[in-house]
Amino acid sequence: QVQLVESGGGLVQPGGSLRLSCAASGSVFSISLMGWYRQAPGNQRELVATVSTSGNTVYADSVKGRFTVSRDRNIIYLQMNSLKQEDTAVYYCNAFKQIGGMNYWGKGTLVTVSS
What is the mean pLDDT of residues 10-30? Predict the structure, then answer.
């Protein structure tokens, strides 16, 4: 099992910045991909960004140029700049193990962008 704990959410004004963190613990030795997803009220959960063990990153078009995902061993970060109201959502950390195809999720952290 893998446990994921997110932190860093909160209230920020449009144009502001926030940094999310997610620490993985437990059976972390075979995690191949970690990333961030988000879910706004009434919407489905969507990909924000992922980072592989080799450092390859993937971003949703809506956050390219504004968000940066990074990874330090079993901790991943999401630096969010130039935040917009439409970025308001619960942000979830995800870890994926290619062997066995197991997905793990954190409980989520709320990001609210509002003036």
Answer: 95
